[in-house]
Amino acid sequence: MKTAKLTGPCNIRIEDIPSPSQPAEGEVLVEVLSVGVCGSDLHMYETGSIGSIHISEPLTIGHEFSARVIAIGENAVNEHGVHLEPGMRVAVEPHVACGKCEQCHHGHPNLCPHHYFYGVYPVPGALSEQMLVKAHNCFPIPAEISNAGGALLETLGVALHAVDLSKIRVGDTVAIIGCGSVGALIGRLAVLAGAANVWAFDLLEWRTALARQWGVDAITVRDNEAVKHIEELTNGRGVDIAIEAAWANHTVQQCVEMARYGGRLTLVGIPPDDRILMDGSITRRKGLTFRFSRRMKHTYPRAIALSSGTDPLVKLDNLASHFYPLEKTGDAFADNSSYKEGLLKAIIQINR
Predict the structure, then answer these.
(1) Strand stretches in the chain, DSSP E
(2) CA–CA gap between residue 94 and residue 122 (Å, rounded)
(3) Among 18, 236, 299, 317, whose Cα sits 20 to 30 Å from the Cα of 186?
(4) What are φ and ψ of residue 341, in 5° steps?
C-alpha cells in the first residue's frame, strides 16, 4: 500500500509499504478516507520536530482523519460501548492514553504521561491507505458528515477543549489571536457559548472572512494592531478572556496586553522554538490566570452533535477549502506552509 512519509524538513516522499496485519484484540483495521493538515503537522514538516520531540527517521504523519472499518479484532468496542462493524465510517481520536495512570483515572487522558499519538514520532499516522487503530478511539459518524468533516472533528475537538478551559460565561468579552482552523472554530464556539463580544484577529483576509461568516467580529491586522483595536473597543479595560491560537512568538505578549486586570489567558498554539515570550511585570500586575490547552478530552460526541443534522451549528465543510490526492501530499504541505491564497484547510483524500 502507499503511504506519505516525512523524510526531512520540507520533504515528503510517497512510498510503498506492506499492508497492516489483521487487527488484534481491541483493534480495528481501517481504510483512511480523509486527512486534514494540522498546524502541528506543519511544525514537523518545516523543522523536523515539534516541541521537544525530534523526528530521527522517516515518519508517516497525519492525525486528523476519518476512516472506514474494514476488519475488526475481538472486543472491537469504543469508549461508549459501541460495537464496531466493517463498513462503519468513523472519526478516530489520535491520542491513545494508557488508561491506568493518575491523570487517566482523574478524567484527563490528554495529560497521560504514558500516551502515544498517531502521527507523532515514533508512531506512524494516517497518511496511508490503511492503518490499525484502537477500537476504543473510534467514533461512528452520521451520513450527513462528509469524509472531510469527519477528519475535522479532531480540529473541532481541540477548539472545544480550549473553550472549556477558558470557562467562557454568558456576557463575557473574548479576544482571539489567529483565525486559522482552530482559532476560527474557537470563535464560533465562543459565540455559541453566549459571549457578549468575540473579537478575532489574523493577518490573512480569507481567514477573517470565514470567522465573520461564523458570527465573530474578525479583523485583518498587521503588527501590533490587534492590541490597539482591543484598547479602543473596550475603552481601555481589556477583555475577560484572551486566547492565543496562532503563536508567531509575539502573540502571547499581545494576549497579555489585551486581557483585563484579573483576566484569563488560554494558550493553544505551539511555539516554533519551544519558548514563551512575555513581560513578567504587566502579567504579574494584572494578576492574570493562564491555562495551557493540551489537545482535547472527551470531545468527540459533542463535536459530532454540533456538526451534524440538517442545519448544524458548526459547518465543518466550510473549513475544507483545498483537496489533494495522497500522491500530492507534498503539494498540500507546501501550499499550507506558504500560506497559499484562500487556503483554510488542506484535506488529503485517500479513499472514498
Answers:
(1) 2-8, 11-16, 27-36, 49-50, 53-54, 59-60, 64-72, 89-92, 95-96, 116-117, 130-134, 138-140, 173-177, 197-202, 217-220, 239-244, 259-267, 289-292, 320-325, 345-349
(2) 13
(3) 236
(4) -60, 130
Confidence (pTM): 0.96
| Coil, strand or helix at 20 | coil
Residue 210, classified by CB atoms within 10 Å of its CB into exposed (0-12), middle (13-18) or buried (19+), is buried
Report CA 146 to chain centroid distance, whole Å.
18
H or E element that contains 208: helix 205-213
Contacts of 189 (CB under 8 A, 6+ apart): 159, 160, 163, 314
Radius of gyration of the chain (CA): 20
Smallest CA-to-CA distance from 82 within 229, 90, 156, 270 is with 90
Q: Which residue has the cell 463535536?
A: 303
Q: Pick out the chain residues at pLDDT < 70.
A: none
Longest distance between any two alpha carbons in the chain, whole Å: 62
In this structure, which amino acid lies at residue 332? A
Single-letter amino acid code for the residue at 296: M
Q: Decide: 97 and 109 in contact? Cβ < 8 Å.
A: yes
Residues 6+ apart with CB under 8 A from 206: 341, 342, 343, 344
Give per-residue pLDDT as tens, 322-352: 999 999 999 999 999 999 999 999 999 999 8
